[in-house]
Amino acid sequence: MANTKSAIKRMRQEEARRLRNRAVRSRIRTSVKTARAAVGTPGVDPRAAVLEAIRALDKAVTKGVVHRNTAARKKSALARRLAAH
Length: 85
Prior knowledge:
mainly alpha, Methane Monooxygenase Hydroxylase, Chain G, domain 1
């Protein structure tokens, strides 16, 4: 447990950031999963879902939640799946 005022404040900040980052990561996972499902479904145009996933990844990079190379790798995989569709 924190002893100093600064450590207590730091714990409050870390908890708020953890919850915020968790929400962003959850949004990424959901949008990527939706995009993958859309690409695999016949008769559905998956472009919108893939673009939404890419947008979510780019936002996460901007916020510092995900490393840019990780986002680039995920976007590339989605683009490859879309091109093969």
